[in-house]
Write a structure and sequence with these properties.
A 6-stranded parallel β-sheet has the order 3-2-1-4-5-6, with helices on both faces. The mean pLDDT is about 95. The protein is an alpha/beta fold. It contains 14 helices and 12 strands. The longest helix has 14 residues, at about 195-205.
Length: about 325
């Protein structure tokens, strides 16, 4: 039984991919609401720091790379006097460290061989994908505090200065009407094939000539984007703008927020769009654990397109359904 009055310092850990971090933020917000007077630390990978900095409810961000090795982390967190840790992404190293530190309340999964190191265990198998990832995250706290709310609110903000600086960097694109296409997924899901995606882009360009098509992605996805651009019809290429590899995560957030539609495979940036409640068209396979049940974007304005129910062949995604979804958003 966790005594709320004893908890003054909380650490929440999520040291994996971008989408996982974003879908952990509702848990952070609920922890702040339940433990009103507690200070909350959030341990993440370095790459996500620029996006999450100054996020409401997080008192201090800690990046894993800033603490070199087990004992550096041990010494750092020993000074923080953590009362409660929520180990969202199961990790033997972290479970052992907080056990050795004598953290009073240690919440984690009950299904790993090292789960004995947690003294507040939650028994849910995520791999069956019966719930959304954000619900699995919230349940780590809800199983101990039934008053935890299942609503998912996000508090991303940026300044007008940031928007103006980005607009200068991308030659005034924010003043245009544009649709974002994010072709990659970083291997986290099954992607719609490049040749199929190029067909869909050509259809948008043919019907919506007054919209720019903006391609986004990281530098590692450049080869995919180059391949995609080579398949775009010449008459459509005039409306194509490639910003891949040129934006940091905060700039990408601003770009997404100003867009008319965000179109993507299941990947981290689709969850930025979901957190901003943008118009979204997402391409998802049917199989767990990659499916929409577990990983759909948390926008009330999202459309999920997938193959026939017994298939993961992303070539089966309907061009007609796609274009009708685009029309619904743009008209």
């Amino acid at each position: 039984m966790i005594n709320k009055e004893e908890v003054k310092y909380i650490l929440i850990t999520r040291t994996d991919r971008l989408g996982d971090v974003i879908l952990t933020l509702p848990l952070v917000s609920e922890a702040k609401r339940i433990f009103k007077n507690a200070k909350i630390y959030f341990l993440i990978k370095n790459y996500a720091e620029e996006l999450i900095r100054d996020y409401e409810g997080i008192d201090e961000l800690v990046t894993e790379e800033s603490l070199n090795g087990f004992w550096a982390k041990f010494r750092y967190f020993k000074t923080k006097k953590i009362d409660l840790v929520i180990n969202v992404k199961p990790s033997f190293e972290q479970a052992l460290m907080f056990f050795l530190l004598g953290v009073r309340y240690r919440i984690g999964t009950g299904y790993r061989w090292y789960s004995f190191l947690y003294n507040e265990r939650v028994y849910e198998h995520r791999k069956v994908s019966m719930k959304h990832e954000s619900d699995y995250n919230l349940n780590l706290l809800k199983f101990h505090f039934p008053e935890v709310k299942s609503e998912k609110k996000f508090y991303f903000e940026y300044s007008e200065i940031e928007a103006d600086d980005l607009n200068k960097k991308i030659s005034g694109l924010l003043n245009e009407k544009y649709v974002i296409i994010h072709p990659g997924s970083g291997g986290s899901s099954k992607d719609i094939p490049v040749n199929k995606l190029s067909e869909l882009i050509n259809e948008i360009c043919s019907e919506f000539k007054n919209y720019k098509i903006v391609l986004t992605g990281i530098e590692a996805e450049r080869s995919t984007i180059v391949e995609l651009k080579n398949l775009i019809k010449e008459e459509a290429s005039d409306n194509l703008i490639d910003v891949s590899g040129n934006l940091n995560l905060r700039e990408l957030m601003v770009l997404i927020d100003k867009s008319s539609v965000f179109i993507s495979n299941s990947t981290g940036p689709i969850h930025i769009a979901g957190a901003l409640n943008k118009n979204i068209i997402g391409f998802y396979p049917n199989s767990a654990p990659m499916n929409e049940v577990r990983w759909k974007p948390l926008s009330t304005n999202s459309v999920i397109l997938k193959p026939d129910k017994n298939s993961d062949d992303m070539n089966e995604i309907s061009k007609e359904q796609f274009m009708q979804s685009v029309r619904n958003f743009l008209k």
